[in-house]
Structure formats: C-alpha cells, structure tokens
Design a protein that fits this description.
The complex is a heterodimer of chains A (about 450) and B (about 475). With about 450 residues, chain A is mainly α. Chain A has 16 helices and 5 strands. Chain A has a 3-stranded antiparallel β-sheet with strand order 1-2-3, with no helix packed on it. In chain A, strands 4-5 form a two-stranded antiparallel sheet. In chain A, strand 2 (about 165-170) and strand 3 (about 175) form a beta hairpin. The longest helix of chain A has about 35 residues, at about 340-375. Chain A is globular and about 65 Å long. The two termini of chain A are about 20 Å apart. Chain B has about 475 residues and is of the alpha+beta class. Chain B has helices at about 1-30, 30-35, 40-50, 80-90, 100-105, 105-110, 115-125, 140-150, 185-200, 220-230, 270-275, 280-290, 290-300, 325-330, 340-350, 390-405, 465-485; strands spanning about 55, 60-65, 75-80, 90, 95, 135, 155-160, 165-175, 240, 245, 255, 265-270, 355-360, 365, 375, 380-385, 420-425, 435-440, 445-455. In chain B, the strands form 6 sheets. Chain B has a 6-stranded mixed β-sheet, covered by helices on one side. In chain B, strands 8-7-19-18-17 form a 5-stranded antiparallel β-sheet, with helices on both faces. In chain B, a hairpin with a 6-residue loop joins strand 10 and strand 11 (about 255). The longest helix of chain B has 28 residues, at about 1-30. The radius of gyration of chain B is 27 Å and the shape is elongated. The N and C termini of chain B lie far apart (about 90 Å). The chains are: A mainly alpha (about 450), B alpha+beta (about 475).
Chain lengths: ~450, ~475
C-alpha cells in the first residue's frame, strides 16, 4: 500500500532547446558578418541558412527527446556553436582565397560534412540503446583501431599530405582513418582496462616512496608505446602518436587510480620522443621548427614558416581581433584546417579564442561529469576516455599553433575543415549523449 | 574510479589554462614584436589597405591616396612630386617610406596614439580607419620660387620664418618624382629606383638637411663676428688686416680672395671686413678670440645639434682642437668646418630674430579625417646665441654687405636686405661652393634664407657666393615678402 511519490526528474530538455537557440544565433550571426564583410550579404540566403540551422537544431532536439531523453543538455549546444563558428570561418576563408583568384568550396563541403556528422551522432543514439553492448566488441574494436592506424602505411592507399602520412585516399577523397581509430581505441582501452584493472593495480616495487606497478604488468603499456612510436616515426605524425598514448595513460590512471602509471607512461613517451628526435632527421626538423621558430635561418628554410605566419596572424588580431572578414587569415597556409585556430585568433581576437576554448572546456567537463555519474566501470572509462580524447586533441592542435608543443597534423574538433574529423567527433558526441542519458536516467525508468 | 576522473578533469583544466596563457602571450604580450617583424607582410597589407591621410601645403593636398581596384586598395598620388620630394619623401611598396611619409607614418596611417579617440568614435559609428592629414609649414610660393631660382644646378635652398622657426622652403636639386616609386608594380618601381640610384648626382639625397656636409666658407664669418661682438668688439673695432697673413707654426701664408688687399694700412673695421669678406682679418680675429670662443658661439647657433624637424638633420661639425694655423683657416669657414644649408639658414634666422634662435620645424598641424585638430606645433626657442643689441649691430653689418659689399646681387628694391656671401674652396679642383645666407626686411625680418650651389653650378671656376647664390636668395626672399604681405 506504499504510495510512490511522483518524483519529477529534470531532463533539461527545455534548457537544451534554449541553448540550441543561442548556438544557432551564434552560427547565423557569424555567417551574416562574414557575408557582409565580403559584400556578399543577401538576406534571403541568410534567412534560408538560419531556417536550415533552426531545422537542424529542432531535429536534434526532437531526436534526443525521443531516443535519449535524459542526455546531457549542454553538450550538443556547445558543439553546435563551435560547428557554426567553424563553418562561418571556413566560408570567410573561401572568400579570401577567391579574392586572390583561388576558387575553393570548403565552406559548402563542410556544411555537408556537418549534416552527415549530426546524422551519424543521431544514428548512434538511435541504434545503440545501451552502451554496455560495446563491451562485447572490446577486441574487435582493438583490431579495427590498429587497422585504421596502420592503413596509411599500406602502399598505394596511403597518401602523404603536408609531410605526414596519416591519410588514405578513398574514391578520390582523403580520409584520416586515425580519427576513427581513436574512438575504436577508447572502446578497446575501456573494455580491456575494466577487465584487467585489478591486476594492473597490484602493487610492485617501491621506489622513492612511490609504489610502481609490477614489471610483468607493463605489457599493454609497452605495446601501446611501441605503436605510438611507430606512428611517430613512420607516419611522421607526433600528434596522433601523442593523442593515442595520452588517452591510454589517462584511462590507465582512471582504471587503476595509480599515479605511478602516469609517471611511467610520461617517462616512456618523453624518452621515445627524445630518441626519435635524435635518431630521425625528419622528427628533428619538426622539433627545431618548434624551438627556434623565429630564428632567421629556420624561418627561411621554410620549416617554421607556417607556424610563424600563424603567430603573425594571431598577433595581428590582438585582444579583440580584426573582426570577422577584416583580417588576412589567408596569409597562413592551411588557414581553413590545421591553422583555423590562428584564423579565429586573428579575426575574433584573444577574446574570441578564449570563448572557443571555454566551449571545449564545457564539452570536456560534461563528459567527465558523465563519467562520474555513470554506474558501471566500463561506462566511466568510456566517458572519461572520450572526453579526454577531445581535450587532448584540442591541446595538441592549439598547443602546436601557439608553440606550446611541436606542430602536428591533427585537426581541431568541430572547427577545422575536414570530413573524417567532423564525422568522428560527432560520433563521440553521439556516444557521450548515450552515456549521459543512461547515467542520468532514474533507476525505475532504466529497469 | 570517481576520484581519478575528478583529478583528470583538473588536468584537463590545466591543459586548457596552458593554451589560454600561450594565446595571451602571443596576442597581447608578444603581439607588438610580432607585428613589427619585418617578415610580417600582414602589417604591410593592412597599412596599404587603409586610407592614408594627405600631406597638405598651404591648404592644398600635395600628396594624397585615391582608391584603386587592386590588392593595395589605394594609390599614393604626388602632385608636384619633384617640387616637394625633399619634404614629403616617398611611400613605396618595395622600398618603404622616407621623410614625412616615414616620420609622420603613424599619423598618416591613422595608428598613432593621439588618434585613439578618433579611432574609438569610428569604431562606434562603424567607419573604417582613416589616416590624419599632415599640414606642412612650407609656403608654396616660396618653395616654387626657390626651386625655380636654383634651377638645374646641384644645391639646396632653405628658407625659415625667423620669428617661429617654420620651414618656408626646403629645396634640394637635383630632385626626383616620388610618384615613380609609389606604383604598385614592384618590378617597375624597382627599375625606377635603381635608375635613381645609378644617377651620379644623387637625386634621392636631401642636400638641405642630410646630404654631404659642406664647408661654409665666408658665411662662417658671421659666427666669428658674433663671437667678437660677444667678447667686447663692436662694428668699428679696427682689426689687423694684412694682404698676407703668416700662419703660425707653418711656412704658409693666407691671402684674400683673388689676392686682393683688404686695406691700404693693414687696418680695417669689423664691419668693413665683413662687408668685403676679408680673409686675413677674420683669420687673425679667430686666432685672437681663440677657437673655444668661436666653437662655443657656433654651438649656440646649432652646430652639433641632433635636430629632427621631424626629418632627421645631420649635425654640422667643427674641427676638434685645431692648432693656430688650423684655427685661422677654420675661422674663415675652411679646414674642417662643415655645415648643412639648414644650419646656415639657422645662423641667419638667429641674427634676424634679435638673437633668439627658434627651433626649425616642418609640420604645422595634424588633423584627423573629420578635420578635428589633433596636433599643432608651437614655436619653441632653441637657444639665445646673441643679445638683442649684438644681433642688431651684426644685422647692420650684414646690411652693409648687401648694400656695398660682396652681396649686392641680393638687393631688393624698397626692402633692406641683410646677408653674407660665401665662396668655399673644396680642394677637389672643381669650382668652389657658392653660398649666400641672409634675411629680409632687415628691420623686421619675415624670412631667413640659406642658398648653396655646389661647385658654383654652371659658372664653375669663377663662381662666387655673390654672383651665383645671392640672386637665388633674392628671389626666395622676394617671394616670402610677397607671401607675407598677401597673407
């Protein structure tokens, strides 16, 4: 005869709708400014663009209401705002290239990728009704990840762009399989670590007052280390290498709660990076271009020219930026992809760049929160791993452009031009939506 | 596993904080250096892409930017380019900027600190940045008269308003047309520039303020006379004026121009010596006064001074610690005495303005694109090299030079002119440099002028300051007096 109090669970869907409205406003206003400064503003067309964004936002909203009603309400609006800013910037760079007689349609292509990415994220929440299903595919994911990572090394399939061999060409389009491999690896790491965490957490020798893992448990870490080193040396991509290794070490730490793993991991990576820098000239060149970017000789040899031009662009923007469409981001090679952060820094200024970085912080912190709220170890690792993947990727790209670390060929999630990155990162958002939906769902409903 | 996730989010925050610090460093702290980096073409494009303010003479733009349909957006246009080149300089995409285009660049381009409020109001009203206009002190009539009078001879003319220090005319010859360097086709600009460089007479050199320094010759006697008046001499003090002066510690003797004799009895007043420009008497006077006294007087008139008007002026120089014979030569403006034409104009201006030397300046005022006054130059005293009485006495002596001495060619009917000629040996076998410095009207001067004609111009060997330079000075002073009456 117990009366069950009707507990009203706040799903946050209404707040999400409001935030989506803000994100759409940012996207449409940015596009309007770009068109205005390019003397290209047609209100009909802008209205159509706005209507399309509203439609997309509404579809997302309804789909989440239907398939993931308890999902985190801040995630998608933050991503959509980034995506909108990215689209406007890429369109702006199209205009700049057109001014110099180079016809590009990066903007339109990116719009298609955005739609496909969103569709992919919605497919994830539609088809994957329970994330725990993924644990069954732990080793499949591991193999898929490895294949994705090594594909660019297959002769005839892999192509070298901008010095890095992280691309394959399929049907005339370049694809970065590592972007997808990243997700597969997170799934694999989560499944593997949740099973083996007890073994890995076992105490080993004590050095300098800190307990280190047993040498015989070092196998998995060593394996990932070797893979990361191979990527750095043979695919000439420090970024992917650092990203994979970083994700693994972070997840290892979350699984075992042992700081010693982090120290061992960082030590191994540092050792490997220094070794590669000493042994391989092409790695060394990248380090020199980073450490001595502004040196006259290094600059005129061309190795640091792109980096320095990016710095010039950001300096030109200063505190408040030149304004969208008022700077010269096209003076930096790959302004629409690798260096979109420099482009944004120039036109939106430090203020705009801070806002963009904050959006990433929000996304990552929501992922971490999801990890804490999730009841199962596999889910915790998955959410924390995916969140950290985004954080580390942003750090590696933006850190490369701002000279915190050597420049690499990774893309800025949701901002940079590129299909693989757009699809893969929206897929991550789809997974995080599913994870947060299950984390925040009241028990009775879940049952 | 919640605790490590929390720690991981702290790590994430630290990573992003690092990025924010790095971005702040680049965009704020290091931004100035990066923007000033010579490899940064962005600064150049931005500068060329904005409307650059005009340079104005007598209320008319002589240099301005007009919109064009190319990647630089604006074309710098020079009306009367060769006439004003010495002052305006050029603005080239290949060779950068010179003269006013360089020194006033931040005002012309609109980036100067003093234009902050203008930029702010533009920002609010949504207007694009526009540079300020720079009005020069030059007087078009005086400038034109000076250029016409100097003609094709290599040399320079500087005219100052002695009461304020305003530069009324600054002409250097040969000159060039800045328009040929302001084009947007870099190969054409390059060709034109190389052609100008290849010319032996150096058209890019501003002889008036920053070319070679010239021996001032007899015009330097004004300094010695001023020093003498300061030391108790007066116009009627009799000087020792032999036909040939023995130079101490040397077997050489010093004569007068053309071997003339200054006086039958080897005695001559200071005034007469100046009027006929007697060498022996002034050389002897210099030795008697001592070089320190003469050099101190010269320094008071501006020698050794690092002036920027705002164009950088090469400081004029004097010999350091000359012996007796060298002092004798230096006292008649030979040996190691060197001066710019501007320096000599300053000597005339200081005497003209009752002994008070005003700092010369070329920029009159700066107005922003909305014609709001941003900066206005105030006349400033540079020094007081002479007392009023001494200055008036020297003025009378200089009037005598023009009325009955070597400077008769500078006479203007109805106006009393004060002046001093100079004919400076160059020791190169070429003709001597012809000088004239002076001012008019003598009782209430409105213009002080210095004229230099290198190697006497077309007259070459027979050239004297009186024959070659004085008529040019007359034309300039006439124009200035006419302009003064008209304004």
């Amino acid at each position: 005869m117990a009366t069950v109090a009707d507990v009203k669970v706040r799903t946050g869907r209404r707040s999400e709708l409001g935030l989506l409205g803000l994100a759409v406003a940012v996207a449409v206003l940015a596009r309007g400014l770009v068109d205005y400064h390019a003397d290209f503003l047609e209100l009909d067309e802008l209205a159509l663009y706005a209507a399309a964004w509203c439609g997309v936002a509404l579809v997302i909203h309804l789909a989440i209401r239907r398939w993931a009603p308890f999902a985190d309400p801040v995630l998608v609006p933050a991503v959509l705002a980034l995506n909108g800013i990215g689209l406007a910037m890429i369109r702006r760079i199209d205009f700049a290239y057109a001014n110099r007689g180079r016809d590009t349609d990066f903007g339109q292509v990116q719009e298609v990728w955005t739609i496909l990415g969103i569709v992919l994220a919605l497919l994830v929440i539609l088809l994957l009704r329970d994330y725990r299903l993924l644990r069954r595919f732990t080793y499949t994911a591991g193999v898929l990840g490895l294949i994705g990572l090594l594909l660019p090394l297959v002769p005839g399939l892999g192509t070298e762009i901008n010095g890095a061999k992280i691309w394959i060409s399929v049907f005339g389009r370049s694809l970065q399989p590592a972007e997808f491999a990243k997700i597969a690896f997170v799934v694999f790491f989560a499944g593997f670590l949740v099973t083996n965490r007890d073994t890995l957490a076992l105490a080993g020798p004590k050095v300098l007052g800190m307990r280190f893992p047993r040498p015989r448990d070092m196998g998995p870490l060593a394996l990932v280390w070797v893979a990361a080193m191979l990527v750095q040396i043979y695919e000439r991509d420090l970024g992917t290498s650092l990203l994979l290794f970083g994700i693994f070490v972070a997840m290892l730490y979350v699984a075992t709660e042992r700081l010693s793993w982090v120290l061992v991991g960082l030590g191994m990576f540092g050792f490997g990076a220094v070794l590669a820098g000493t042994l391989f000239s092409h790695v060394q060149v990248r380090y020199t271009a980073w450490l001595h970017a502004l040196d006259r000789e290094v600059y005129s040899s061309g190795t640091s020219e792109q980096l320095v031009r990016g710095l010039f662009g950001m300096a030109n923007g200063g505190l408040f930026g030149t304004g969208l469409g008022e700077g010269r981001p096209d003076l930096v090679p790959y302004a629409e992809s690798d260096f979109i952060v420099a482009s944004l820094g120039e036109e939106l200024g430090l203020t705009g760049l801070m806002a963009i970085l904050t959006l990433y912080v929000i996304i990552v912190q929501r992922a971490m929160r999801t990890a804490i709220g999730t009841r199962h170890g596999f889910g915790k690792l998955l959410a924390a791993g995916l969140g950290f993947a985004i954080a580390l990727q942003v750090f590696i790209v933006v850190g490369g452009v701002t000279r915190v670390i050597p420049l690499t060929g990774l893309t800025t999630p949701f901002l940079a031009y590129g299909g693989s990155s757009m699809l893969a990162n929206w897929m991550i958002i789809g997974l995080l939506l599913r994870l947060s939906d299950q984390a925040r769902r009241p028990e009775e409903v879940a049952a | 596993m919640n605790e490590p996730v929390r720690r991981l989010s702290v790590v994430v925050l630290a990573l992003f904080l690092t990025l924010m610090v790095a971005a702040s460093y680049i965009q704020v702290i290091a931004a100035g250096d990066l923007n000033a980096d010579a490899r940064n073409v962005r600064t150049l494009y931005r500068e060329y892409g904005t409307f650059r303010g005009p340079i104005v003479v007598d209320g008319e733009s002589v240099v301005w930017s007009s919109p064009v349909d190319d990647s630089f957006n604006y074309q710098r246009t020079y009306a009367d380019g060769p006439l004003y080149a010495a002052a305006t300089g050029y603005y080239s995409i290949v060779y950068g900027r010179t003269a006013i285009e360089q020194t006033e660049n931040d005002l012309l381009s609109g980036t100067a600190d003093s234009l902050f409020w203008t930029r702010l109001s533009n920002l609010v009203s949504g207007e694009t940045q526009r540079g300020a206009s720079v009005e020069l002190t030059l007087d078009a009539q005086v400038q034109e008269a000076a250029a016409a009078a100097l003609g094709d001879d290599a040399g320079a003319v500087v005219a100052l308003d002695p009461r304020t220090g305003e530069v009324l005319a600054m002409v250097t010859s040969p000159t060039y047309d800045p328009a040929t360097l302001a084009g947007h086709n870099s190969s054409v600009v390059n060709e034109n520039y190389q052609a100008l460089l290849a010319q032996e007479d150096g058209p890019l050199v501003n002889r008036a303020i920053a070319g070679d320094l010239y021996p001032p010759g007899s015009t330097f006697k004004l300094i010695v006379a001023a020093a003498a008046l300061d030391s108790g001499y007066d116009a009627d003090t009799e000087l020792y004026a032999p036909d040939e002066l023995d130079l101490p510690l040397s077997s050489r003797t010093l004569g007068n121009y053309g071997g003339e004799s200054c006086s039958a009895n080897e005695r001559q007043t200071l005034a007469d010596s100046l009027a006929m420009s007697c060498n022996t008497s002034f050389a002897n006077l210099g030795m008697q006064l001592g070089w320190n006294v003469v050099a101190r007087k010269a320094a008071e008139f501006g020698w050794g001074e690092q002036l920027s008007i705002p164009l950088a002026v090469t400081p004029s120089v004097l010999p350091d610690d000359p012996d007796e014979a060298q002092t004798a030569m230096a006292s008649i403006g030979q040996f190691d005495d060197r001066a710019t034409p501007l320096q000599m104009a300053m000597v005339a201006a200081g005497i003209a303005n009752d002994g008070v030397l005003m700092t010369p300046y070329l920029v009159d005022s700066v107005r922003d694109a909305n014609l709001r006054l941003v900066e206005e130059s105030e006349p400033e005293e540079l020094s007081t090299p002479m007392t009023r009485a001494d200055a008036n006495e020297l003025t009378d002596m200089m009037v005598q030079v023009v009325e009955s001495g070597t400077g008769k060619a500078a006479q203007i009917s109805g106006v009393q002119v004060a002046g001093k000629t100079g004919t400076a040996e160059t020791g190169t076998g070429e003709g001597p440099h012809a000088w004239f410095v002076g001012f008019a009207p003598a009782d209430d001067p409105v213009v002080a002028v210095a004229v230099l004609v290198e190697h006497g111009g077309s007259t070459q060997a027979e050239a004297t300051g009186g024959k070659v330079a004085a008529p040019i000075a007359r034309a300039v002073m006439e124009a200035a007096i006419a302009a003064e009456g008209g304004s």
